[in-house]
Amino acid sequence: MSSNADLARRRDAAVTPAAASVHPFYPARAEGARVWDADGKRYLDLSVGIAVMNVGHSHPKVIEAVRAQAATFQHLCFAVGMHESYVALAERLNALAPGRSPKKTFFANSGAEAVENAVKIARVATGRQGIVAFSHAFHGRTHMTLSLTAKPNPYKAGFAPRAAEVYRADYPYAYRHPLAELGGDFGERMVDRLRDQVRTTIGENEVAAFVLEPVAGEGGFIPAPESFLRGLRDYASEIGALWIDDEIQSGIGRTGSWWAVDRYGLEPDLVTSAKALSSGFPLSAVIGTAEVMDRIGPGMLGSTFGGNPVSIAAALATLDVIEEEGLLERAHVIGERFAGALRELGREHAEIGDVRGAGAMVGVEFVKDAAKTPAPDVVSEVVAHAREAGLILLPTGTHGNVIRLLPPLTLTDAELDEATEMLAAAVRHAVGATAVGA
């Protein structure tokens, strides 16, 4: 078997440098919360493929479902003939979708494809073109979705022209938004700001949809306030626009409920899902109210591989595991333990500016001073030190100064304790004992 060093040389010769990796190791095997690289080093994984392996790596039930389906047939294409499991997963997701309205589902391959199809649906369903995305957003890397994504480097720079009729509004980032310092309900203030932005720069009758992550992922694990989400829902309905709820990173149990918006009993018009939906097999979904989905005519949506039967089998098994093993409840326990430990650590180190998240989707933002100057160098050092100790972490955030914790929801108490200790050691190493401003 090739070593990490051998693979690095082969990679340099064969793979474009545009396909970058956070970590310089080459995974060779994974099970549960553990990953082994090409040199045989073992890691505890708090990335799970960026919120993909919510039920842990190589879960036996998922693997068995995939093997059984692969032995039956691998592909036909639903445009040729729709297989029963496609319908079965659609039924399952329709029942799990937020809100009480009847739902219908379409399957594609990736999160970006789900968002792009949701935009297509919204434009046809409303007869409008304007799409409002938000600052600190990440929705993908296709032409449409990189236009919706906010962060220019490395995602958007050089890729032009951007998609037309895409507009940007302010995301309710309480830690960094000046309106949060004025008192009162920050979420309501941000809804008022959104209304003003739409009225003065777009026109309310031009908006087809608002596209929002209820917990901004790549932007820094920023939960939107309940009052903002409620206000957005009301405003979209008021002006005849749709709400596209991007749950690609926050969905499928990550926040302690099937969808992040379930915490508030809200019903979007369209929900996008991918990542954890099928435990690493390519699959994404657009789940929408039947009233909206039925406005799209036959043949207007399609995908050669979308709804592949092997990926569908993995998804059905993943949903079973989450239900049977009580992983929604477990997500709350894991998240509370990590957030509590980080807040305690923040009392030692003022470089920890904010700890936030929902369920087992926890972010910690590092700053240099009381002015909240981002400290991406601290994050880089934390990630590197943790890796050497055998802990996989991922940086994130518009300013590169946030560490995101995405543990498998199957993480045991012993693994949780081990991860917490290694994380604390990495933070202490990176920031030292010097207080901000000293």
Structural write-up:
The chain folds into 2 domains: 4-55 and 326-431, Alpha-Beta Complex (Aspartate Aminotransferase, domain 1); 63-324, Type I PLP-dependent aspartate aminotransferase-like (Major domain) (Aspartate Aminotransferase, domain 2). Helix content is 37%, strand content 17%. A 7-stranded mixed sheet has the order 4-12-11-10-7-5-6, sandwiched between helices. The protein has a 4-stranded mixed sheet with strand order 1-2-3-15. It is globular and about 55 Å long. The model is unreliable at 433-438 (pLDDT under 50). Helix 3 runs antiparallel to helix 10, helix 4 runs parallel beside helix 10 (309-324) and helix 7 runs parallel beside helix 8 (226-239). The protein has helices spanning 4-14, 48-51, 60-70, 84-96, 111-126, 143-148, 186-201, 226-239, 290-293, 309-324, 327-346, 376-389, 413-431; strands at 27-31, 34-37, 42-45, 103-108, 130-134, 166-169, 207-212, 215-216, 222-223, 242-246, 270-273, 284-289, 352-358, 361-366, 391-392, 394-396, 402-405. It has 13 helices and 17 strands. The protein is of the alpha/beta class and 438 residues long.
